[in-house]
## 1
Amino acid sequence: MTDQTTERKPIIYSGIQPSGVLTIGNYIGALKNFKLLEKEYECFYSIVDMHAITLRQNAAELRRRTIELAALYIASGLDPDKNLIYCQSHVPAHAELAWILDCFTYMGELQRMTQFKEKAAKNEANINAGLFTYPVLMAADILLYQSNLVPVGSDQQQHLELTRDIAIRFNNIYGDVFTVPEAHIGKIGSRVMSLQEPASKMSKSDPEDTYISMLDRPDDIRRKIKRAVTDSDAEIRFDPENKPGVSNLLSIAAALSDQSIDGVVNSLQGKGYGDLKQTVAEIVIEAMRPIQSEFDRLMADKAYVQAALSRNAETVAGRAAKTLYKVKKKVGYTLPDRKQGRVQ
Ligand code: ATP
Ligand code: LTN
């Protein structure tokens, strides 16, 4: 895919866990931005199934969700021949680099991670070592491809900072091995909130009525938004601190209709919360409609989706191998010489 003789475009990397059907939070905070960057960058988008097993998954469901997530990537407008959409576990270099980077990451750094603390609190019976070292595997994902930019929601900023710290630490010891990546966090909707508890993030592993899935049908979208928590004064105003529910609905509408928040507020002048909710619901329905119909078409042709994943895994494995080879040499591993049957 990439022409080695021409100058390489800068690299984008991002990943999403196949841990449930994507929410409009995942779409607005991450997926929607992936497409915007397609022209200027070489784009790597992974389905991070290795991250997903940090919480217990049903094997058959995980397999199904992996294909569904690939189909959602494609249905959102990412052409798999132009974007390297692939599955993380297809490329063993991720696990290999993660181990090496584990040895360059401090316990204290991982103990400070908010996502670990939140997930550990929610899953007391299964606080496993993978959940703890989760951010190191994410750092390996990003650093393997010498990525420049990482589009994510704002909940991932802390993991991105850790990735940068690990890269800089490694480079200080061994020379310039890794590109130090930057986070790309959208201005509107980088943290879409739960419809029922607007103080916490909308999350695909929370109860159904707290989120809108990208595959929810119009009636479900209308029902969930109608029931969304607002407040008792009736003014439509963007004020996340004092009016988190209303502000969340305004952000969703703005992000999905490519308007400014002020634009949405102005269009609702003199109206009530009922009108606000109706407007937001229709915007969400219209934004998801073309994605859903493309998704349905792709799921009827899973072989196409699977073939794209396999093809791309081969391409990215070659790219990952280059960084991994360099890293192994730097840390002092001996490398087997396959032709001679010797150890170098
Ligand atoms: P889980 O609930 O299983 O932990 P999640 O819904 O938080 O998952 P991830 O797979 O961890 O989703 O995240 C995928 C991408 O979506 C990340 O870039 C993340 O920052 C972004 N994202 C997740 N939730 C939101 C949200 N509520 N608002 C904006 N962006 C989000
Ligand atoms: N940790 C992320 C998912 C993720 C990711 C990545 C994001 C795994 N590897 C690499 C960007 C780049 C999450 O929990 N949302």
## 2
Amino acid sequence: MEDCIFCKIIRAEIPCIKVFENDLVIAFMDIRPVTPGHLLVVPKKHAAIIPDLDNESLAEMISIAKDLDIAVRNSGIPCEAVNLQVADGKAAGQEVPHVHLHIIPRTTGDGFGLRMPADHTVPKDMSKIAELAVLIRAVNSDPPEAE
Ligand code: AMP
Ligand code: ZN
């Protein structure tokens, strides 16, 4: 992808602060860190969202994310916990349309958080939830783009 900013980083056309690289993925520091130590793990093959990414690249992204989760926890950077986050599409908050997994070191009171709807604390009607599960199971048993 000619104009994709992460493809440009992968091709070394623009700089990054690299932490790890192999044949399938690259990991580098986020330029606008949510907390100190915020990293991105990025598959080298361009895919905008996870459904478009091959399973080998996806598995490697998760595997390297685990290694870097452990590394961050043991790095000396303040880190009591880690958020592993993927915004999989624009409405989910994705700004860069090339799959990436955020590794965000967390400490109590760091100010970061996921904002939930006001009624999130209230359990919902289980029969309605079950109806949605029926819809998902029906498609998942015969996935349109399954590999
Ligand atoms: P998202 O909103 O999940 O698409 O996150 C995109 C992330 O990419 C943001 O956290 C940005 O700060 C980060 N980002 C954008 N451009 C660069 C860059 N050139 N180098 C490092 N991180 C970047
Ligand atoms: Zn790309």
